[in-house]
Specification:
single chain, alpha+beta, Elongation Factor Tu (Ef-tu), domain 3, OB fold (Dihydrolipoamide Acetyltransferase, E2P), Rossmann fold, ten-stranded mixed sheet, globular, binds adenosine-5'-triphosphate, binds magnesium ion
């Protein structure tokens, strides 16, 4: 029996005759087949969130329940693709409909007509259990989309062969205890349900981002969760783009939710032209974009972050490290508020529904480092990073507060730094990373033995600078001790020549961790030599005019291919100071 529309309010539709429906079932509305989801059930009446334009809907139109929750098709064809908030491929919709996507255009994520080369990695007779890889498709030059035994299926392979297949073709048959199960390359997964893992593991390694202030001062772990809150125009989107471009994750999922269309256009135009530093191949070979810009249906924005994290989980399950960005979770929360308002729910703080925190958590909690199902010990991770845009930069507002309770890394952007054009405007006085303890050890063991010592020196110098500047504002610079003057000098080098990083400079946009370590060493060495010179009675002017000091300002523009130039700066600093200190001894 079909339901009938009794009321339409914006994107919310009420239908009667829906007694067989369940919460979160997906429905098709009217003869156009608009996609909707059931958000509330009262007796036989269902309140339905429609994810497409409801223009032209009438009371009395049919509503058909699919009996399934809103789901995403997962399989080969996701990489390099662009999806809308409910996981429809915008690239194939564009091919079919051009610029004007017709309402009711279906829910396909994958191309069902395209053939893929499936390479079997198991043989007939092999015993397999769910999560095991049975084959793969070399989908791009750098990523194999692995075909895994579906959840709940274990047994002996009856048939399997390599060859060209459509995503819906059967590539293997498995004899299980209760019959024969077929395996294709496409599976549907309800976007609001986390894909299970065998065990969540503690994080243990750093996601390197090529952004110096992040990697050095406020690092994020593979499998970690972070937020980038900042006022209007402070650089949230640029930070997210930088992480999508340069982080050393295997797969990147970028969700543009509720941001301006032109920002997404920038991504669509720029990403295909960029080369991934790890693989030297086009960035799009490992990237999936979800575009739900401010001019697209607001309801689909709410779904978009779950669509994104479902895709992230799909690749995590293959043993990849995945990073997902959501820009911005504030626009996402506004969509949630709008929908809650239409449902006439009791509003909580600032009109957001009381379940705001739960919903945010149900996104971030799907991140993590995990031991996966399957016989071979596979580990995969999802790192989740959300931008937050609090009105007027007020961090006490509900979305920021709810986010801060969940995330472990906080890169707080400040309008003061952005105004001074110090980018990234991550304010070192308010930002933190709770992964520092674990990752300090990782950096010392994997990058350089005294990495954490140098990092602590940077943090301490910046704190000292803030204290000394307070004094300067009262009594002026000249009365400071030489020691304090040198602290200010070193802090300036740290800020301008190390932390400041121009996202739009060809070389500066990315710093490998090796480059960062060498830059840090040079600043650290300069500070140590300068300190020695102060102890030996040299004046501030003498110290800051050592010739090699000028080279510190050029460090960030040393290309990755010429890192030995940074070692040369270290040698020059040593030579200059040794000469200077010898003078003292001779005198
Ligand atoms: N790392 C950077 N290097 C150079 N310029 C930067 C950097 N980060 C931000 N900017 C400058 O700041 C501008 C605003 O940045 P962005 O669009 O990321 O801000 P936003 O916080 O996302 O703004 P909105 O609140 O409008 O979403 C950029 O267009 C750019 O000029
Ligand atoms: Mg932005």
């Amino acid at each position: 029996m079909k339901g009938k529309i009794t009321k339409v309010t914006g994107s919310l539709v009420v239908a009667e005759n829906m007694q067989d429906a369940k919460m979160f079932d997906m429905v098709k509305v009217s003869s156009k087949g608009l996609v909707g989801e059931i958000l509330e059930l009262r007796d036989s009446n269902a309140s339905i969130q429609v994810y497409e334009s409801t223009n032209g809907l009438c009371v009395g139109d049919d509503v058909e329940n699919t009996g399934h929750p809103l789901s995403m098709e997962l399989g080969p064809g996701l990489l390099g693709n662009v999806f809308d908030g409910i996981g429809r491929s915008l690239l194939s919709l564009y091919e079919d409909f051009g610029n004007r996507i017709l309402a009711g255009a279906g829910t396909s994520s994958l191309n069902h007509q395209k053939k893929w080369q499936f390479v079997a990695t198991k043989n007939v007779g092999d015993e397999v259990s769910f999560g095991d890889e049975i084959g793969y498709v070399q989908e791009t030059e750098i990523i194999k989309t692995k075909i895994l035994v579906p959840f709940g299926v274990s047994g002996k392979i009856l048939s399997i062969k390599s060859g060209e297949f459509l995503v819906d073709d059967i590539v293997a048959k498995i004899k299980t205890l209760d019959g024969t199960k077929t395996v294709s390359m496409c599976q549907k997964w309800p976007i609001r349900k986390p894909r299970p893992v065998k065990q969540k593991l503690p994080v243990n390694s750093s996601l390197l981002t090529g952004q110096r202030i992040i990697d050095t001062l406020f690092p994020i772990a593979k499998g970690g969760v972070a937020a980038v809150p900042g006022p209007f125009g402070s650089g949230k989107t640029v930070v997210q783009h930088q992480l999508a471009k340069w982080s050393d994750a295997d797969v990147v999922v970028y969700v543009g939710c509720g941001e301006r269309g032109n920002e997404m256009t920038d991504v669509l135009k720029e990403f295909p032209t960029l080369v991934d530093p790890k693989t030297q191949k086009s960035l799009m070979q490992k990237t999936i974009l979800i575009a739900n810009t401010s001019d697209m249906p607001v309801a689909a924005r709410e779904a978009s972050i779950y669509t994104g994290i479902t895709i992230a989980e799909f690749f995590r399950d293959m043993g990849y490290s995945v990073v997902i960005m959501a820009d911005s979770t504030s626009r996402w929360a506004e969509a949630l508020r709008e929908m809650s308002g239409r449902l006439e729910e009791m509003p909580g703080e600032e009109g957001y529904p009381a379940y705001l925190s739960n919903r945010l958590a149900s996104f971030y909690e799907r991140a993590g480092n995990a031991l996966l199902f399957g016989k071979d010990k596979k580990i995969g991770s999802i790192t989740a990073i959300g931008a937050v845009s609090p009105q007027g930069g007020d961090l006490s507002e509900p979305v920021t507060q709810a986010t801060l309770k969940i995330v472990k890394v906080f890169w707080g952007l400040s309008s003061k730094l952005a105004y001074k054009r110090h980018f990234p405007a991550i304010d070192w006085m308010i930002s933190y990373s709770s992964y520092s303890n674990v990752l300090d050890k990782w950096f010392n063991e994997n990058i350089v033995f005294n990495f954490s010592e140098m990092k602590n020196f940077v943090t301490k110098t910046l704190q000292q600078e803030a204290e000394i500047l307070d004094i300067v504002s009262l009594v002026g610079f000249d009365v400071l001790s030489t020691f304090d003057k040198i602290v200010l000098d070193v802090a300036e080098i740290i800020r301008d020549d190390f932390l400041h990083q121009n996202a739009f400079d060809e070389v500066d946009t990315f710093s490998s961790i090796q480059k960062q370590a060498k830059m840090l060493k040079n600043v650290f060495d300069y500070a140590s030599f300068a300190q020695k010179a102060v102890d030996n009675g040299f004046s501030y002017e003498e110290i800051v005019s050592v010739p090699s000091k000028k080279s510190l300002a050029k460090m960030k523009f040393v290309s990755e291919k010429e890192l030995e130039k940074l070692d040369k700066i270290a040698e020059d600093l040593r030579t200059d100071f040794v000469l200077m200190l010898q003078k003292e001894v001779i005198a």
